[in-house]
User: What shape does this take?
Amino acid sequence: MTRSLTPDAVAELLRPLVPQVLGPLVRRYGQFEACEDAVQEALLAAVEQWSGSEVPDNPRAWLLTVATRRLTDQWRSESARRRREETVAVQQPVGIVAGPGEDRPPERDDTLTLLFLCCHPAVTPSSQVALTLRAVGGLTTAEIASAFLVPEPTMTRRITRAKESIAAAGSTFEEPSAEEWPERLRVVLHVLYLIFNEGYTASSGEQLHRVELTAEAIRLTRAVLALLPDDGEVAGLLALMLLTDARRPARTRPDGALMPLAEQDRRLWTVPVIVEGVELISRTLGRGPAGPYQVQAAIAALHDQAAGTDTTDWPQILELYGVLEELAPSPVVTLNRAIAIAMVHGPAEALALLTTIEGDSRIKQGHRLDAVRAHLLELDGDHAAAREHYLRAAKRTTSLPERRYLQSRAANFSSADR
Assistant: This one.
């Protein structure tokens, strides 16, 4: 015993240890749900015993021992219950099924395998996110519920359904086959990006940012990159997160409303993070075929390296959006390409592009199409129509900071402009 930490410091110490404890348990015993519950109990015990007290020299070994005892207690209890109910003697703990890879060395980092398990195709995207944050990120159910602004029982049910889906699918603790690997890794990266995006622009609530989610997404992506240092898309995703998150300090007004990129005080951007992101994407591009995350990171780097909107290399950004639309077409990409078109060729051509996606069910129910159209109409000098679309977008968004920004844009136009 050598260290004494505050509760917050204990939580920070525990978080990266979660996959290092959960992985060996699932690999040895199978039964992901039971192992995950045992690890959560061990984490709670650690917070209670270590806060303000001394921390064991080997925290991982301590957690592994406590979680294993919890599992043993649980299985003994289950065995006793069955004996009482069935009056059948049970000599061995029930349900202990060795998972594949039990022969692996205990010090192996199981983070990636756990991510593959949490992001199993049988699990819905929202449950993949929740389970990843709990089983790999080490967040409590209450913390995840708070981050997504849902009641804790709702998040509990979401996580429970995810574990039940994994069990029903018969998935085991092993990495995907070579044939499955690209698609399974794509899903893992998508889930990490979903976590980051929810933290960078919260889909609802008073706050624009949920820093705990962006920080966790970046931490987990760093961990995946450490395991797959030659994967260009993992590097691209981390670079994209860094280059985007670097702008966060300038992204809100004093009243909490959104500050658009063109109006941000770029002196507030976090320069060391930009430098890291630029270096990362510069090292990655050109090593092989570029994927969507690498292209988006390259676009983000061009924005971050410009002194202002007027000096941004919009022609190159437009070219990159053309590449991105071929690699990963979506209405959101088209919206962003329209903005680049407006900066290079003018708003009229950009407005014409929007008509190609206005019937797309993926975009027409949200606020983004109206918000971008309002911006383009404003650039085109049609202030009355711009005001109308700003108000429509404000009505549709569930983010209060975005709503305040859109309403303020609409208010800029006097009744004489209507």
Q: What stands out?
A: Confidence is low (pLDDT under 50) at residues 88-106.
